[in-house]
Amino acid sequence: MTVLTVAALAVLAAGCGKSDSSAPTTTTKDATATTAKGDGGSGAGGTLTICSDIPYEPMEMEATTTKTPSGYTGFDIDLVQQIATKAGRSLVVKVTPFDSIFASMDAGTCDAVVSSVTITDERKANMAFTTPYFDSNQSLMVLKKNAQKFKTIDDLAGKTIGVQSGTTGEEWVNSHKPSGATVKALPGAADLFAALEAGSIDAILQDYPINAYRATKDKNVVITQKIQTDEKYGMAVKKGDTATLDMLDKGLSTAKSDGSYDKLYEKYFGEKPPTS
Question: Which pTM does this prediction carry?
Answer without folding.
Answer: 0.71
